[in-house]
TrEMBL record:
It holds the Pfam family CbiQ. It is a multi-pass membrane protein. GO terms for molecular function: transmembrane transporter activity. It comes from the Bacteria. Keywords: Cell membrane, Membrane, Transmembrane, Transmembrane helix, Transport. Transmembrane (T) component of an energy-coupling factor (ECF) ABC-transporter complex. Unlike classic ABC transporters this ECF transporter provides the energy necessary to transport a number of different substrates. The gene is ecfT. Belongs to the energy-coupling factor EcfT family. Forms a stable energy-coupling factor (ECF) transporter complex composed of 2 membrane-embedded substrate-binding proteins (S component), 2 ATP-binding proteins (A component) and 2 transmembrane proteins (T component). It is found in: Cell membrane. The chain crosses the membrane at residues 26-53, 65-87, 108-129, 149-171, 246-266. This is Energy-coupling factor transporter transmembrane protein EcfT. InterPro entries: ABC/ECF_trnsptr_transmembrane, ECF_transporter_component, EcfT.
Length: 268
């Protein structure tokens, strides 16, 4: 389960999406997520499926690797489907004991599950095709106007960069601790919910200690190098828009326009 978390991981390969400016990918991810909340019918989600499938294809990231991220949210998906399936009022389809499945509940449950899955996969495309440094540089550039109202944009981007870099490290550390505890006879699988929660204590305590130690070492290293924030700092590789980025913005604009038209004129 730990290895199935793809957040913060980068898949190195040469593709069109990899070569895009990180600002294009950040805006594209936002546009795709917003479009998922615009759709109210089958045709809208069919359009999102087509857009997502083409994006995965041209990213050259293996499909099975992309789907690994869904394993970590399978419980959330099940809870979302169950709650929407049984608690949404409407036209009754099936009724047994105290449970009732309605037409509206079935429709909502399917759409919510698809929306959540697409949201995770769409976000994974951005993180898997963009290095943490490029991602934070793109975020800092996009939020740069907020500096005028005294928002510490550079510090926010720096914290995001550090968090993304620490996620794979902490996952690897968790995996090592779990294997060490299992070798000493620890059992993380059997028993009821309370027993499973108690069994996590020998895992969480050393993990927190390791995380705080790494954070302290990083803070000392930054102080030793006289880090003073973003004022006056320059970039070794400044972000510059290229022709391919203009094409990317054009595709996003066309996708968003089609989404709006489908939402307005295609009957529910």
């Amino acid at each position: 389960m730990i290895r199935d978390i793809t957040l913060g991981q980068y898949y190195p390969t040469d593709s069109i999406i990899h070569r895009l400016d990180p600002r294009v990918k950040l805006i594209g991810t936002i546009v795709f997520i917003v479009s998922l909340f615009l759709f109210k019918d089958f045709f809208g989600y069919l359009l999102a499926t087509l857009f997502l499938a083409v994006s995965i294809k041209i990213s050259k990231v293996p499909f099975h690797f992309m789907m690994k991220g869904l394993k970590s949210i399978i419980v959330l998906l099940i809870i979302t489907v169950v709650f929407n399936l049984f608690l949404t009022p409407g036209e009754k389809l099936i009724e047994f004991f105290i449970f009732k499945i309605t037409k509206e509940g079935l429709r909502t449950a399917i759409f919510m599950a698809v929306r959540l899955a697409y949201l995770i996969v769409g976000s994974s495309i951005m993180t898997l095709t963009t290095t943490p440094n490029h991602l934070t540089d793109g975020l800092e550039k996009l939020l740069n106007p907020l500096n005028k109202i005294r928002v510490p944009v550079h510090e926010v981007a720096m914290m995001m960069s550090i968090a993304l870099r620490f996620i794979p490290i902490l996952l690897e550390e968790t995996d090592k601790i779990m294997k060490a505890q299992i070798a000493r006879g620890a059992d993380f699988e059997s028993g009821n919910l309370i027993k499973k929660a108690k069994s996590l204590v020998p895992l969480l305590v050393p993990l927190f200690i390791s995380a705080f130690r790494r954070a302290n070492d990083l803070a000392m290293a930054m102080e030793a190098r006289c880090y003073q924030g973003g004022t006056g700092r320059t970039k070794m590789k400044p972000l510059v828009y290229k022709k391919i980025d203009g094409i990317g913005f054009g595709v996003l604009a066309m996708y968003l326009l089609i989404c709006i038209l489908v939402n307005q004129f295609v009957p529910v």
